[in-house]
Amino acid sequence: MKKISKIVCVLAVLLLGGSCKKYLDVAPDNTGTLEYAFRNRNEAENYLFTCYATLQQMYDATANPGFVTSGEIVYPNNLTKHPLDETGFNLLRGTQNSNNPGLNWWDGENHGQAIFRSIRRCNIMLENIDKPVDLSIAEKKRWIAEVKFLKAYYHYYLARMYGPIPLIKTNLDITASIDEIKVKRATVDDTFAYIVSLLDEAAPDLPSVIGNQVQELGRITKPIALSIKAEVLATAASPLFNGNPDYVSLKDKDGTALFPAAYDANKWKLAADAAKAAITECEADGMHLYSFIPPANITVLPDSLRKVLSIQNAVTEKWELNSELIWALNPTFPFQGYATPRLTNKSVINIFSNPSLFAVPLATQEMFYTDNGVPINEDKTFDYAGRYSIKTGDNASRFYIAQGYSTVKEHFNREPRMYANLGFDGGIWFGNGKVNLTDMYHVEARGIESFAGPKDINTLNITGYWPKKLVNYLSVYDDGFQEISYRLPLMRLSGLYLLYAEALNEQSGPTGEVATYIDKVRTRAGLPGVVTAWTSYSNNPGKVTTKDGMRQIIHQERRIELCFEAQSGWDLRRWKELQNVLSQPIQGWNVYEAQPANYYQPRTVFTSVFGVRNYLWPIKDQDLIVNSNLVQNSYW
């Protein structure tokens, strides 16, 4: 029976595919026993990489709830060409159900990965790590730390989606009884405590930096572990999990409450301390906010475009050249073509080589600040009531908006992060093969005759905005699509700074240190400090003086800084703000119209469906039948 158990475990591993020595594309050779899989260092290393396998599959942003359910990007459904898996995007249209859940990461169905299987692999690695006799003590300690981190992260991924989950601390023996197999969900507090304990065990034995970047870039480091610990603790301290009245009645079959009934302010102190420790480690290892350094072929670059490229390249720069990238997944981001508008005649001729289908709602555009660094509905100098009127690009805005081109007034006098994040009708698109300031591309998106405008449903941007930030400025869409690849960040230093500011504000209110860490991010974006901006330009100058006001500022700051990076969807969930964001219809411009006055009329693309029950995923009904000790999440 024990041999059968081992064979079953190995067969699960073998489902990952063949062997390759390059890091993170590795699975063990076809073997029949765990003794063979751990017979020496090389075979054990192959097994280590299978523990990473599910993590690496997370590069597919269309399976990430933080990306597809944030409301930052929408996708037309029922396409006949360029089809992505629409399961995640369609959740905003109300398709979620407990009979067959979309993005089912519990069971590995409907575009989700089987995370519990990944946890079992990690346990197998930890149970057998002593078998290779030629494995050095130093490597063994590092591998154990890596696997403990992965085990923690897999539990964390499930906890963000499902709340209280079963904790798979060890694998069950093949002789386990039926009662032992029917695992229960741990409480939310126990779940997060276990995740943090694994991260604490892992961090000391992880390297601070990767020495061999060719072979090992993407493997877990100490800065990664400390940064994720800070994020885990901030999640545990947030309203979704910390004294949430919506789930006070959720109990297991024995009557144990799975959510804490009372709010615990100390959780924010733990998060703040962890974030500060992570920042200290990152900065000691030489990390700092990225700033674009022009290559030799860009001889003149105005400060306005330099800011845009610093923001854009903080995401799309190569990992080894990106000074603020703490963690990214090893596979490259595969959707640049979906984020790039057509800019040339040849791109129209080759229309089916690049779908351009990732559409950004109007509300996402209006989330970005004015150039004074405050929201557009708060800026005393911004014509908010007249924002949909038409204005022509002038010399002052020539590096953001094409001169002589008519566009909407709210595209003017906005912060550099808006121009770095968004492609829009009339907006400058620096790059795509052109870096001469006298000959830059701009987007033309009005009507069917324009380059970027609608041609058919399979190449239609349904709002008139593209997530430009997800495109390397050197990628070219002309005679086909030639991309410069990059890895989408999971954690950047700017996000860690804002996480620390958030935790500090929740702990102690808007102190000077809170403003300091917000301003580190705002300075790179070319904005005045947060206190100066609100004092000088906002019609609500007292907002920066209260905890509630500063909370609103920090939340918007994180949504702006980390826009399109699969972060906001998770943040909005833990803050319990996603329902508010999605309560308004998803709107864009009237994209089939050619005249500016007709094009710039807000048009509802669809009405999203999101209620309280959608904050947590349902457990599949069949799982509740198979395991009678499981209980369903509230409202499902």
TrEMBL record:
Keywords: Cell outer membrane, Membrane, Signal. It is found in: Cell outer membrane. It comes from the Bacteria. The keyword Membrane applies. Belongs to the SusD family. The lineage of its organism: Bacteria, Pseudomonadati, Bacteroidota, Sphingobacteriia, Sphingobacteriales. Residues 102-215 form the SusD-like N-terminal domain. Residues 359-636 form the RagB/SusD domain. This is RagB/SusD family nutrient uptake outer membrane protein. Pfam families: SusD-like_3, SusD_RagB. SUPFAM superfamilies: TPR-like (SSF48452). Residues 1-24 form the signal peptide. One of its GO terms (cellular component) is cell outer membrane.
